[in-house]
Amino acid sequence: MAGRAARLAAGVHQTWRRSLQVRVVTITLVASSLLVGGFAYLIADKLTNILLENAETDVLLRLQNGSDYASKQFNLYSQPQEAQLQDTIDGTVNYLAGGDPAQTSGVVVAITADNFAGYIESRTSPDVQVRPLISRELRASVAAGNVAHQVRTGMLDGQRTKYLVYGSPVPTRFGQVELYYLVPLARQDATAADARATVVATGAALVLLLGLLAALVTRLVVTPVRVAARTAQRLSAGLLDQRMVVNGEDDLALLAASFNQMATNLQRQILRLEEMSRLQRRFTSDVSHELRTPLTTVRMAADLIFAERDDFDPAVARSAELLQAELDRFEELLTDLLEISRFDAGFAMLDSEPTDLVPVVHRVADRLAGLAERVGVAIELDLPDSPVIAEVDPRRVERVLRNLVGNAVEHGEAKPVRITLGMDQSAVAITVRDHGVGLKPGEEKLVFNRFWRADPSRARQTGGTGLGLSISLEDARLHGGWLEAWGAPGQGAQFRLTLPVRAGDRLTTSPLRLVPADATLPFGGPRDGGLLAIGPGSGAGALAVGPAEGADRAEVNS
């Protein structure tokens, strides 16, 4: 039962969030119900008060006349023990009760004389017990010489009825007696109930009419918006020929016409950009392939010259060495350009297999040990003792790590570079931490751009092509993983590669934190434990790039 209620509540909440028409109609119904309910309450209350005031006026007039009549009758007696006084009281009560023209209104008249209990008996017409309906406070007020009234509910004729009870003192020569009129309010209550029912029914009909009107008006507005949304979804899915139907000349028709014009312009621009991109990719690929043949020839000649450099003049020998180094870099650039062109064309394929990443990290560190020693940077490894197995393409992962570690060594400022490997049930992560110049605010967004350099005037030690991080980003995306960067001026930088343990799984968290524990965060942010999210524009930012760029996820610290 609880599960069904939870599903129902979730469905209602989802409908509320997704349907503008439901929200407008619901708000209209609630607002109109409150407004109509308030008016209905005021009208019913006012009508009830009017009916009660009319009844009070009628009873008060009757009470005054009856009091005057009774006073005249009783003033004939000077002592309460006179024999004819009781008969006069009985006749007076019957006369006053018979004054009701309908004779069926249920009005009860009573005369009491509590001060003369031994001489005068109370009389009521008709003969019913009215004592329960005359409260002690009312009797005290009338006995004190005041005209007072109350609304009381009780049983006189076998059924429970609400009565308007009015009491008035009747002065006589021998003292004061009290006259009471008890008028049933059943007719007034019935009239008020009928009025309330009429007002409620009218209000309910008005609310339903307003809800229906709101639904119709909202439908007229929402339907074109929904059509526009569906058309926009088809356009975003690549169906660029989708258009809205234009009916009439109103604002909605203008919206549809403007939307269609926008879609036409977008289609034309997208097709033009696609053609330009296709030509650019083809040009890059063709140039890279065409340069292979002359490069091979130049390479053969350069190798021959380089092998005989000891027999040359020192200046010529040095030129041969420079030529060999630049040819190596040129060949690497052509290789990277070909790889980039395969990514752009969508021809890159992933050759996943269960791989232990610990030996991969060792191979990368060994390969770059010579460069690290030359620039005075120590490479530190923080690796688990047990194997770290994941379904990855080992060639691409090793290439990503070579680029990350090579950049860290290049910008390490002769300080240690630390490589950390971590794993949980769903993901593996590798972080490369350096303590060099770091990244300025906003540069973490640019670091993966092609041919981008943080400091163009800086002398390179590795002779890189400027495409390494771009290719690494594409390799991470191809695995369905993330490649992220963090950096701060003077605190160095840290890159994190996160890959799913099983190929094709979707990442949600990373086993290693992106921001290093020794970093000084702006505004005194958290260093370890808990949630940590550093985004662009925060001074020390993190660029998170995954399978879908900009996807939301939690940054979980170990």
TrEMBL record:
Membrane topology label: Multi-pass membrane protein
Annotated ranges, domain HAMP: 219-271
SUPFAM superfamilies in the record: ATPase domain of HSP90 chaperone/DNA topoisomerase II/histidine kinase (SSF55874), HAMP domain-like (SSF158472), Homodimeric domain of signal transducing histidine kinase (SSF47384)
Protein name: Sensor histidine kinase MtrB
Gene3D superfamilies attached to this UniProt entry: 1.10.287.130, 6.10.340.10, Histidine kinase-like ATPase, C-terminal domain
Record InterPro entries: HAMP_dom, HATPase_C_sf, HATPase_dom, His_kinase_dom, HisK_dim/P_dom, HisK_dim/P_sf, MtrAB_MtrB, Sig_transdc_His_kin-like_C
Pfam families per record: HAMP, HATPase_c, HisKA
Originating organism: Micromonospora fulviviridis
Enzyme class (EC, first level): transferase
Enzymatic reactions: ATP + protein L-histidine = ADP + protein N-phospho-L-histidine
Keywords: ATP-binding, Cell membrane, Kinase, Membrane, Nucleotide-binding, Phosphoprotein, Transferase, Transmembrane, Transmembrane helix, Two-component regulatory system
Molecular function terms from GO: kinase activity
Annotated gene: mtrB
Ribonucleoprotein listed as a keyword: no
Domain of life (superkingdom): Bacteria
Segments passing through the bilayer: 20-44
UniProt domain Histidine kinase: residue ranges: 286-503
Compartments in which it is found: Cell membrane
E.C. number: 2.7.13.3
